[in-house]
């Protein structure tokens, strides 16, 4: 395959993907759209995109293909061309994966929304002891320094879980059908852990505000 054929093939593949994305965006239920509206669905290194609609990602892939065409015309180094090709491939895979895992993303957002609603109801009724995170308050409530340490620990856990989710999603794209169910179960488990971790982060942040508020009032 020569260079012209390569570029032509990539553009045909992108055109096919664009039709899938347009259909995806148009068929996304309004409730799901609202849930995903503020969700960061990609690493910033992959796409500059936030929210439910995925069509902005198609133009970014198109820009990469145009960039590759210029690099080939200018006979740039093989390493430079290879990096661009790899980026195009990664973006194709990530965009397809985002469409395939929408149900998981929506379920996670529903769980987070429900968790936040339950949490604020408990907060208003001053029933923090039944929140499920009272062990954090019991251990570190006496010290804002300890609270920040606990917060950093949970933020690190969140990063590790997100990295594991990306790994599992990547494996899911290339695995055999016999292993797909096990990977999907592992992925759901990691999303549940992510939800619980983020619940704990929200709780700790609220505890920090409660702890520091009297100190702020004393300095007035």
3D architecture notes:
Pfam families: PriC. InterPro entries: PriC (IPR010890), PriC_sf (IPR038338). This is Restart primosome assembly protein PriC. The structure is a single chain. The chain is mostly helical and 220 residues long. It has 2 domains: 98 residues; 115 residues, no CATH class. 80% of the residues lie in helices and 0% in strands. It is built from 8 helices and no strands. Helix 1 runs antiparallel to helix 3, helix 5 runs parallel beside helix 8 and helix 7 runs antiparallel to helix 8. The longest helix is centred in the last third of the chain and has 42 residues. The chain is elongated and about 65 Å long. The chain starts with a helix and ends with a helix.
